[in-house]
Every structure is written in structure tokens, then in C-alpha cells.
Amino acid sequence: MDAVPALDEPLKKVLGPATAKVMAEHLGLHTVGDLLHHYPRRYEERGQLTHLADLPMDEHVTVVAQVADARLHTFASSRAPRGKGQRLEVTITDGSGRLQLVFFGAGVHKPHKELLPGTRAMFAGKVSVFNRRLQLAHPAYELLRGDAEETVETWAGALIPIYPATAKLESWKIGKALQTVLPSAQEAADPLPEPLREGRGLVPLPEALLKIHRPHTKADIEDARARLKWDEAFVLQVALARRRYADAQLPAVPRRPRPDGILAAFDNRLPFTLTEGQRKVSEEIFAGLATEHPMHRLLQGEVGSGKTLVALRAMLAVVDAGGQAAMLAPTEVLAQQHHRSVTEMMGELAEGGTLGGAENATKVVLLTGSMGAAARRHALLDLATGEAGVVIGTHALIEDKVQFHDLGLVVVDEQHRFGVEQRDALRGKGKQPPHLLVMTATPIPRTVAMTVFGDLETSVLDQLPAGRSPIASHVVPAADKPHFLARAWERVREEVEKGHQAYVVCPRIGDEEDGTKAKKKAPEDEAEKRPPLAVLDIAEQLARGPLAGLRVEVLHGRMQPDDKDAVMRRFAAGEADVLVATTVIEVGVNVPNATVMVIMDADRFGVSQLHQLRGRVGRGSAPGLCLLVSEMPEASAARQRLNAVASTLDGFELSRIDLEQRREGDVLGQAQSGTRSSLRMLAVIDDEEVIAEAREEATRIVAADPDLERLPALRTALDALLDEEREQYLEKG
Question: Whole-model pTM?
């Protein structure tokens, strides 16, 4: 039997089962190669201390600091009623800030002996707040004394690598494990073609791995990072370039609109002219539909830039050419909303086969999971016979029973809410692969589009249609200034008195069962955050208190589909003044008369989600107002995020801020379906140049050698990136 290559060796054999188990479960590391690619997050220099002032809340951190003082307190508690409870409070400092460490019960003895004032150590734990001060409860620590042989050895390097760690496995233990496997780095196969590596002055892979884990100088770290970033960008771009190459080999039916067809009739009906942006993007889409291989295009646009209209024109172009077009929406509320707005926009052109229908009309059919059996049978028949040119639905469209006469275009709304299998299943319903148009209302920076949607061409709509009103946004600090919140509810009443409507959004529904069984908290957890505000509670409080006398309705995801639709219809018809909802209203809901939105616990939402939600107001001629309510303190990162949202309406600017604040993996989770992002070194925002250059190189290499026969090491790296699951992900993207 062949020996296992060094980098594929299971960690269990090298580090023992206990450590290997923790690494697999908590860090997703299984082999020697996985561990070698678990890079330090940053480095500590001897004598240079971490900034305690910048510690993030609720994150697991590692700091190097000095003990300033240590005090042992005794107290009475339920477990130690006679005042025998012990609590050790240690204050550590790094010159820039101070941090409190607490140890309880039997856990106080060892640190009490070891953490004497003046002692330097590495501390690891989760940052929490107690009595408005940052603290680490029961942190693990490693003294930096240099007395024991091993400690001297491990910390002898001038630069101490700090690894992404977990409560179960501290950074220094990961460092020791790496010491064990580092010799295997010599056997790493280099995926970069030699001419490319030399042409760009990049160090070989084994050298990069040694330098990233055991740097002697800062220059070592720079060399290693530059090289490892290229690997990540290049291998991912090769995967995407091969996707694009394979797609270009597939056949598709070209779909061209007729000069006197349904599209022309629709354009003549429009009560306004298209914006320059809508015209330009439509041309790009029509050019794609006219080709003999499937168009794969991403249409991204600002909230309210008129993407639905552009998508509808593309669908009508396909109907003109004798095909059918399907629009896939992520929720029933949204599918019904799209169906309503499309039939309204098309008027008699949507009444194909009925008496009032125009001569080149078609049928527009809705298909969702909760439809009655008879309506569903009708819809399925219209699809199979080709009677319905346009179909709008949820994933009910994907079921085996659904047959199309001739599916020519699939429009997917809100990409990130759809599993790839679902898109793939729908694409499989065409006789030949249909064209694909993906719409997203979350603006994506160019580099992310190249990385996440690298197999799609991109069109951007960045102009707002005429007649849209500006939206003013303000942060309402509910804890510091409660009168601001009272004023917010007054503003809602004022808008309603003017004949307008309002949304109030909460993070939670409020009928969750587990909320009742509160766990008994340890003293150090007392400062834990309260649960997020809930729709059902807030609706009741508002109806009884500040908004008494107004018509307040509730909308959330666990309501029956018919009830949801009824609430939306009443709100759209002006029969309710205030809609208290979860984020089900985030996309596509269009009520031009709604002018104000209050977002409760706004700090619990992401930047792009807040931008999406805000886009639901100011859709008519009256100006919009968005109030972001938060109890987070002024200086917190969460408040800075909210200030950023309040300060700009530019979605692309916000998406950059969002990306800079979130971990890359969250954003790219959609490109890599594994739980861990394969991007460990590449920062999508900062490394724009590397990504763009890697894309060019990848496209060139794949065009010359689609199967990478001349580049076996690159092929291996690609297989590692695209383990089965990811390969399928990109296959289906």
C-alpha cells in the first residue's frame, strides 16, 4: 500500500486522538495540511503589548499583558452560604488599557499563586461586560517567564504567532501542535505554475508555510502573506474560469424579441421612460439572451432602482421568442408581491387566453406551495402546454411534477436566499439549458462579485428612477436618551396623521417556546444581553401605549400564507396604519404610502440588511424616514455600524463597510459551501488587485489547457478546494 502523502496524514496519528478531536470539532482541521493552512491571525512582539482598548465584545481573544494587581474576595452565595465563596479579581494592563480577569470557586488557587503583580503572560478567553467594564471570566493563561525549558523554546522567537483559537484549544497549544507538523511543509506541492510564480517574484509554497508560522522578521510575514494570498485567489479563480469555460461549451436557444411583439407593446404601455441605466442594462441582457450558449448574468442594483422592471422586460423578450420565463422568489409573500406587481404593470398583456386580453398577450401564472389543489392543477396545465409565458413562484416550481413547455429563462430573485440545488433543479427543466439572470438588491463590491459570483457576468443598476424621495436616517440611542425613543413614536403618529403609514421591525417573533426556560446563570454571565425584542410584544405595547388608537397589524414568517397575504393587502390598501414585522418585509415589499420605518434593536441586524429594510420607505413622492433604535453604548462597534448606515444611502459604500466589519468567511460562505471559507489569507476588499490579476491569469491558463493536464499540482490544489460538495456548488452556480 502506498504511504499517505505527508500533508494528508490524519492529525490523530500525529497529535494523538484527544487534540485531534478538538481540532476537528472546533476548528474543522483534520489533516496535517489543514493545520499548516491554519494561519496566525496576527503576531505579538516581545515587549510590545496588545491594545486592550480595542477588544471586541463576545469574541474569543488572546492578549499578552502584565498583571497590575490581584485581589482575593470572599462572599456568601447559595453554594457557599457562610461567606466561604471565593472570587479572584486580577487586573492586567498593556499600557493602553486595563482589563479585569475573574476566577471563581476552586479555580482561584492556581492563578492566585501564579498571577502576581509584574508577571507577564498570554491570556485567552471570551470578552464580556460586567458592571459596564470589560472582563475575561476564567481565562486560560500561559506565563511568559522563560524558566521551563519548553516555554523558552516555544517563545524564543521574537514574533509570537496568535492563532484563531477556541475556548477548548488556546492559541499557544495550536502553536505547539504546529511545531510538530511544520517539517512536513517541505513536501507541499506548489499549485502556482513556475513562470507565474517567478514572474511575480513570489516565494515557493514550502518556504511561505515556514515563514508564516515561524517568522524571524516582519519581512518574512510579508513574503509569506503575499504568496499565500496569490494561492487562494488563483485557485479559486481557476475553478470559476473552468466553470465559465464549460458553460460556454453548452448549447442554448438564442432568444430575440420581435419588433412588434409583447415587449414592444409593454414598452408602449409604460407611463414613464426608462432610466439611462435601465436601458443600458437591458441591452446587455438582450445581447446575452441572443447567444447560442446560456447567458449567466448577475443583475445588481440599489434598493428601488427598478430591477424588477428590467427582469420583466427580459422575460417578455423570451416570450416573444416563443419561450417561457420563470421567476423564482425566496418567500411566498415575495412571490405573491411579484405576481401582483407584474400583472399590474402588464395590464391586458397578462390576460392571454381571456376575453379582455390584448392580441399578443400571454398568461402570468403564480405557483406556490400553499395553493389549493384546483388552482395548482390549472397552473401546472398552463405551464405544460405553454399557455403561460411567465410563471412566478417559490421553490414549488422545482418539484418533479412541474413541467414546462419550453423554459428559456430563469430569473432568481435575491440570490443568497436560494440553495444551489434549487437553482440547478429549475435549470434542469429546460430542453436545453435556459438562460439565467440572478438579481440581488444587496450591492456587492466588484471584487466580491468576482469572487462569489465569478462565473456570472455582472450588470449594475446604480441610478434611482425619477420621483423617488430621499430617506433621512437617524440613530435613536434608547438607553442613553429615552426621550429620543418617545419622540420617535410621536414622529410615527405625525406621519399617520398626514395620511401616511409606518413599519416597525423587530429581530424576533416572540412566540418561541424555548424563551420560557431561562437557564440559571453563573455570576459571570449575569451581564449577558437580554433577548432581542419581539414583534408580538412590541405590537401589544405600542397598541396599548404610544400608538394607541392607530390601526396596528402584525406580520411574521410563522403566520399562515393566506393570513400573511391578507395583512400585506390590507397594509398596501391603506387599511392599517402601522405594520409591526420581522424581516419578512426586507425584500420586494412595495407600499409607496409608507414613509417611516422604526427598526428596534437595530444593532442585531447586518449593515446590508438595514439598508435593505430602509429601502421599503420613501418609495413614493413623500420623503422617507428611517429610525435605528439601539441600546448599545456610544463607543461600541455596533453603534459605529449604525452611524455608518445613517450617514450614507450608497449601498456600495455600505457593502464595503459591511465586509470590512464582518469576517470574510461569512461573505464568501455562499461561494464555498463548506462551513469554513477557503479564504484564510485573502481579504476581498483590500486585495482587489490580486483578485483581478489572478482572474486574468486563470482565464488565460484555462483557455490554453482546460483540463490542466500540464499542471498536476494545480489540479490537486483545485481538488482540495473543491472537495465533492464545493465542486457541486460551482457546478450548479
Answer: 0.65
